[in-house]
Amino acid sequence: MMALARSVGLLALLVSVQGLTREQLFDYGIRVGDKILDSGTDSVRELELEQTLFFFKGKFDKVYVNTNGFISLAEPTGESEYLGKMPASFGMIAAFLGDLDTTDGAGYVYFRQDKSPDVLQRVAEHISQAFPSDDEIEPTHAIIVTWENVAPQGERGPGGEYRNTFQLVVANMKSASYAILLYPEENMQFGSTLIDDEDQPVEVGFNEGKVPGWFSWGSTQGTYYRITEDSEESINALAQETNSGRPGVWVYEIGTSPLFTSITPGEVTEVTEVTSVETVVESLVPEPSVPWIRHHEDLLTSEAPYEPLATSPEPFGESSTPDEPQHRYRYVQPQQPQNPQVLIIDEDELNVDVFSYNYETCSSNKHKCSVFADCRDYADGYCCHCKPGYYGNGKDCIAEGKPQRMNGKVSGRIYVGDSPSPVEFSNNDLHSYVVTNDGRAYIAISSIPSSIGPSLQPLPALGEAIGWAFALQQPDYRNGFSIIGGVFTRQAEVVFQPGNERLTIRQEFSGIDEHDHLLISTELDGRIPEVPQGATVQIEPYREIYQYSSSLITSSSRRDYTVNMPDGSVRTHSYLWTQSIKFQSCPHEEVLSAVPASQQLSVDQIFVMYDSGNQLIRFAMSNKIGSIHSGIPEQNPCFTGRHGCDTNAVCRPAQGKDFSCECASGFTGDGRVCYETERPVDHCQRGTHDCDAPQRSRCSYTGDSSYICSCLPGFSGDGRACQDIDECQLGRCHSDAICHNTQGSFTCQCRPGFHGDGFSCTPGSDREKTACERHREAAQASSSSGGFFFRPRPAVGQYVPSCDAYGAYEPLQCHASAGQCWCVDSSGLEIPGSRAQPGSRPMCIDHSVAPPLIGPTPKADISPLTPGANLLFSQSGKIDHIPLDGNRMIKDEAKTVLHVPGKVVIAVAFDCVEQMIFWSDITQPSISRATLQGGETSLLISTDLGCPEGIAIDHMSRNMYWTDSILDRIEVSRLDGSQRRVLFDDDLINPRPIIADPAYGYLYWSDWNRDGPKIERSGLDGSDRTVLVQDGLGLPNALTFDPQSRRLCWADAGTRKVECIDPFSRLRRKLTEGIQYPFAIVSYGRNLYYTDWRRDAVVAMDRHDGMEVEEFLPQRRSRTYGIAITYPQCPAGVNYCSRDNGGCSHLCLPRPGGFTCRCPDARDGSCVEQDQNF
Predict the structure, then answer these.
(1) More confident call, 270 vs 1088
(2) 997: β partners
(3) Which residues contact 629 (CB under 8 A, 6 or more apart)?
């Protein structure tokens, strides 16, 4: 039926209700921990429950998941005994009961148990919405079963392509259970299946099964609470109506304890109507129809309106009594008018706000493309396209010719031979390496026990998808990654001959991670024939045809292999292989338009081996993708793989057998030999320049190997020799002021008897008293009245501060009665760790040696910046620096300070005492350091590391702290890596950033555990561990502490906010929100600087108003990781471990108000730990 709509710039006002979509189902798939039901038409899997399920009057500790759209409370009988013959003899929750099929590799059944807070919260919201008068909805356990793309079994005729996706969630509480049924409208395409050659509607409901009869004599059929009837109207209503206030979502209370009366449906049958304004264009629009029940297609154009009708289910058996109220809802389809009319409304008569539909465009989504891709707008959206020299699907792009690495995990279970017990796989490591310019792939899986290792040798199919993704391309043909990128799901079925053993391989490819590695998750389930210990396997070359469609790729083949037995005999076997690959292409263009509908993968030079000594299974194979037709093979070396180009080069074919080798992006050379791109020598960074000291001059790199020297403000000279300018000789101060010259600057102070700022002095003593003078007067007045004004420490008598001639605090303050002295800063605050024992005096810095710089007085939480500071940040394989001029980044002088090829540098830290850079590498987990001026690097720690992601330096105590996100712990050592000690190894999941505050003795870190992110604090000795922030966090990746403002700030990649907190008052403040994906952050001066993965940038923001003030984009666009600040000299301060290691023989670990002596974990007898704090 066609409807003609005529309009030019006119609008039709329609009232619509938004149905459930697939994206609104509960998350499912391998990535969230789901198990997969065996493919079939009547497959069953038992699931032991972690919490009791209440169903009718019973309590159950296990359920059975079935292909046919239900879970049962007892092991189900064969499908012939219940399909079309309900009610069944066993208890059943039927979400969509019919003869369903998942054998074609496109449909799957996923299931899991879940106790995560976000899932339970969402479950509670569904139940509360359906039962608004119920209180205390607190689910503690959920069972989630998802039937995805299941097809009707049997002869499907013209409807054979129809598939359904739906979900069942069972929520368990302490004394009740609920069922939530979810039906996404666009994914419900059929409503009947063939049973005994008849097209019968599916059934939805709750079946109690057989129950004991009176006085336990025999059994009778229990209640069957049926939700649907044998009509297409009630089945269609599943996705279009509700009892929970949301179309397609149905909620029922299915069991209570200790008393149960009946199945209770949700109470909210009305749906809030959503008014939408749609533009009606002049076109012929075919009216959609959904073939729910195919032999009733003639009814689709004459339907009745929806009317909810309360009815009672037909009772079955004696257990259904008249006293038990039963409820059910049936629905009738809306009536479609025979002569549809289009409502035309003049714009002047339309009294509503009109909004045009905002299609997604590149302007707001460009960041979703790879940094090596261009974004292109289309009429109804955008697509990403890899740039020349790169290939992929635009979301994932890799350089042509560059080898590709893959990492992943393998889980599941496999039975070997006739063994009754399976071999379990639990996150076994899978690593792969592909030389893309010749199609050679290498795969290794670790921790494979000898009980199964030899029997896995016939299965290079475990890594075939990797070979197909990066196969050597023949002319006009494309490998998998160049078509669909790195995000896809693959399911394969292996049937061995002649024993008919079956194995299911399920793999989820999750794209390119931050280290340019492709991520793979693999699940195995089934049985394989046994290959004896000591036997070897040889696999013959094979060819396989891949069939391509818009979102599905399929293939099948037969593989032959021979087993060379330990006794010298040879056995020949084979297996049948089918697979399907599902992916999402850009919906706004036909991604496969230039790809042949069929391509052939040719695999040869297959090598398999089980390494029993290292418990590794290894596969290697050569892969080519090309035509399905036989013909003269391509002879050009670029297509045979025999070209001799470097592994980091791409082979460019020419006429005949001619070709050339071209180094991949990021490499240089003649193509036969390629090196990672080297830049000209930067003498400023290497320290090989002849400029004056950095306190007086600046070395500026100008390109190639050139540089210029210039004196800093306050100095004069040619840059190679700079002298301080004595501003006091120039008469800058007032005549009644005293001028103090300093290196690079000066200060002016009015003489005694005058007041002013030094540039203008007025006679008289009526100047405003200083803080020290006011403090002194108050203390003296308090002392004379017998009271006490200020007590930094409990003492006998009164402390009166000492002020100098200008009213400033003397750097050394003493308490005469207590006999103690300590150092204070210019504000009079005690410098932590400076208090001396009675009878001795600490060495304090004289504030008058370096008085404040002239000019406007900065805010109290800002300190003048030290010349020569730099930002350090890391990218994969290198550490760059950006000089800072005050708060401004000198972008044109940003250069690489350290190259570490082949490494992935994550954390960066700096020791201001020895001017050393510290960093962590996660490829071969290690922590290293090097001097800022270059030279040899020192490997500090390389053993017993999992993934060191954060480093903190206590420059006062000479200690280093780091987090390990795999071993889930925090450790400390000396700066040379010696004397390691685990500080924390409990209640940590994903610790990453870590910050030391050596002046006050605190340690801060964050844990971005998605189920419970938090920010914590302890003493630097591990004492007094406490959680500072736990609410309102998502992924707190980045953390920094500003010693001037005493604020702890963090950037959150989950909430996309930057926030700060006072760790002592716990006052919290949001600086900004809407940032993209921060990784690390550092505070300096007025700004916060953070690295951003999405922007591949270093971003500066004002830490007072949260405004972004500057962005730096590195020349090499890749993810930016750690960030740190370098200082030409250390900030002032000492702590209890600064001198003589606090008297400790090994580790001196400070804490607020004291320190602790500790031994390293590896003790040699020379360290004795007395468990005493000081």
Answers:
(1) 1088
(2) 1002
(3) none
8 Å CB contact between 970 and 989: no
Nearby residues of 797 by Cβ (< 8 Å), 6 or more positions away: 815, 816, 817, 818
Number of H helices, E strands in the chain: 8, 82
> Residue 1081: helix, strand or coil by DSSP?
strand
Task: Provide the 3-class DSSP secondary structure of residue 1000.
Answer: coil
Torsion of the alpha carbons at 83, 84, 86 and 90, rounded to the nearest 10: -10
Amino acid identity at 307:
E
Helices (H), 391-535: 464-469, 480-484
Distance CA 265, CA 859 (A): 64
- The reported pTM is 0.38
Give phi and psi for 323, each to the nearest 5: -75, -15
Q: Which two tokens stand for residue 405?
A: 């690495």
Cα–Cα distance measured from residue 684 to residue 415, given in angstroms and rounded to the nearest whole number = 63
State how beta strands 895-899 and 878-885 pair: antiparallel
Q: How far apart are CA 114 and CA 141, in angstroms?
A: 6
pLDDT band at 845 (very low <50, low <70, confident <90, very high): low
What is the Cα gyration radius of the chain?
Answer: 37
Task: Provide mean pLDDT across the span 734-761.
Answer: 78
Contact 463, 622 (CB under 8 A): no
Task: Give me 685's structure tokens.
Answer: 């960074």
The DSSP call for residue 1034 is S
For Cα atoms 897, 901, 902, give the angle at the middle one, nearest 5 degrees: 145
Q: Which tens digits make up the pLDDT trace of 58-77?
A: 999 999 999 999 999 999 99
Asked if 393 and 488 touch (Cβ cutoff 8 Å), the reply is no
Q: How far apart are CA 126 and CA 1139, in angstroms?
A: 62
Query: What is the Cα–Cα distance from 1084 to 1043, expressed in whole angstroms?
Result: 10
Residue 267 to residues 236, 251, 384, 393, 656, Cα–Cα distance (Å): 20, 9, 46, 47, 76
- Judge contact between 184 and 163, C-beta under 8 A: no
Q: Which residues pair with 166 in a beta bridge?
A: 147
Which residues are paired to 809 by β-bridges? 803
Backbone angles phi, psi at 776, to 5 degrees: -65, -45
Q: What is the C-alpha separation between 1106 and 1071, in angstroms, rounded?
A: 5
Which residue pairs from 30-34 have beta carbons closer than 8 angstroms and sit at least 24 positions apart in sequence? 30/506, 30/508, 30/521, 30/523, 31/508, 31/510, 31/521, 32/112, 33/112, 33/114, 34/110, 34/111, 34/112, 34/144, 34/146
12 against 30, higher pLDDT: 30
Q: How many CB atoms lie within 10 A of CB 456?
A: 22
CB atoms within 10 A of CB 568: 6
Q: Which tens digits make up the pLDDT trace of 522-581?
A: 999 999 999 998 899 998 888 888 888 878 888 888 888 999 998 889 989 888 888 889
What is the spatial distance between Cα 536 and Cα 366, in angstroms, rounded to a whole number? Answer: 51
**Three-state DSSP state, 640:** helix
CA distances to 97, 103, 254, 792, 825 from 67, in Å: 9, 10, 22, 74, 74
Tell me what the mean pLDDT of segment 657-663 comes to: 86
Q: What pairs with residue 969 in β-bridges?
A: 964
DSSP line for 71-93: EESS----GGGTTTSPSPSS-EE
Each residue's pLDDT tens digit, 1022-1070: 999 999 999 999 989 999 998 877 899 999 988 999 999 999 888 899 9
> Which helix (H) or strand (E) segment is 871 a member of?
strand 870-875
DSSP 348: G
Per residue in 342-382, pLDDT (tens digit) is 333 333 333 333 332 234 677 767 667 887 888 888 877 88
Q: Helix, strand, coil proportions of the chain in percent (round to 5)?
A: 10, 45, 50
Rounded Cα distance between 128 and 618, Å, is 53
How does pLDDT run across 411-457, given as a tens digit for each residue? 999 999 999 999 999 989 888 888 888 888 899 999 999 999 999 99
